[in-house]
Predict the 3D structure of the following.
Amino acid sequence: MPDCQSIDVVKHGRSAAGKQLYRCRNLECVGRSFILNFSYRGRLPEVKAQISDMAINGSGIHDTARALRISPTAVIETLKKSQVNLNKSTRPCLSSVNRTTQR
Ligand SMILES: [Zn+2]
């Protein structure tokens, strides 16, 4: 995650371990690269768009989270904010995740 907490980041090659590296586009931060963590990825516009697409296509919360390598919580938060009409197969999953996270 960039020090400045910005979400204005671009892909910047891969680390030696094969992880996707990103670089912040703020002028103060140019030159530093970093690996995005789970919760951070869910804030990226490109990831949010993929979450919405997968929900529309009927993917469940857990399938979406696994495919995009983010947490189920991030998927739920994004869908809540994005006004996506969840289909019937997604809704029961969403409510069960809510129950477990609120415990
Ligand atoms: Zn930055």
Residues 2, 4, 6, 24, 26, 29 surround zinc ion (CB under 6 Å).
